[in-house]
Design goal:
five-stranded mixed sheet, 23% strand
Length: 270
């Protein structure tokens, strides 16, 4: 009888400790988070995410960026709690090049990359010696070169393809003698008048009034390794608010909105 009483007392004490720990964690959890996103479609998606998160008591403040180089710096410095604009290869490169310690906590969307033009309607019309704009950051530049190779326009060194490190220096065959022009991703839409074609990321394309399905002369398949993600500082990856943020994004409401609103130009990656 005495042993049974002690066991019950110990069980009740353990339960009380767990409840206290849970309440303490909730008390310390953030109820407001700042999330950095890029211009365009991400703003629309996060309007829905904000509404879903609000039902869970999480207030999301969206901060919009026009430059891919800024959101990770803002996150690393503590000006943001999270960001949602990049894929894993871009994050890996930024962590390595800039010494950030930023990690993914959940997938968001895949935004297929496209090459656009104001001068040709189909890629078969691309003339010899044409100027081709690609992104000047390593991960997106590699992505654009892989897309050119998939279209049969260039051939890259196999090692560069395997390692996802392709640059214009890795082109080993260029039958049309294309002139590859690396530019900042945000400048590519504004440079379309000077280029035959240009690789433009979805958010910048949308801002420029371009549609992947209607206007792209080359486009990635919907399934690709370039799924975007929500990222946080490593110290925050297991925080309750981070899980709540991911859950709000990966909700049925957000998935339905993406599929209905963007009709394949953005694809849920969760």
């Amino acid at each position: 009888m005495h042993t049974t009483f002690r066991r019950r007392t110990l069980a009740l004490a353990t339960l009380a400790a767990a409840l206290l720990a849970g309440n303490a964690a909730l008390a310390q959890d953030k109820n407001t988070v700042k999330v950095g996103v890029s211009v365009g479609s991400a703003e629309q998606v996060f309007e829905v995410v904000r509404k879903v998160a609000a039902k869970d008591g999480l207030n999301i403040q969206v901060v919009v960026f026009n430059d891919y180089q800024l959101p990770n710096a803002a996150l690393a410095s503590g000006d943001l709690d999270a960001n949602a604009f990049q894929h894993q290869p871009f994050l890996d490169n930024q962590n390595k090049a800039r010494g950030f310690d930023i990690v993914p906590v959940g997938l968001t969307i895949t935004a297929p990359l496209g090459f656009y033009s104001r001068k040709i309607k189909t890629i078969d019309q691309l003339p010899e010696g044409a100027s081709v704009g690609i992104q000047n950051d390593p991960s997106n530049g590699n992505r654009a070169l892989l897309l050119l190779q998939s279209a049969g326009l260039i051939t890259l060194k196999p090692e560069a393809v395997k390692n996802n490190t392709a640059t214009p220096l890795d082109v080993v065959s260029n039958p049309k003698k294309l002139k590859l022009v690396p530019l900042d991703a945000a400048q590519l839409p504004r440079s379309l008048d000077d280029l035959a074609i240009a690789a433009i990321n979805n958010d910048y394309a949308e801002k420029a009034g371009l549609s992947l399905n209607k206007d792209a002369v080359i486009k990635e398949a919907a399934k690709s390794p370039y799924a975007n993600l929500i990222a946080v500082r490593r110290a925050d990856k297991d925080k309750p608010w981070a899980r709540r943020l991911v859950a709000a994004y990966q909700s049925p409401e957000v998935k339905s909105f993406i599929e209905t609103q963007f009709k394949g130009s953005l694809v849920p990656a969760f």
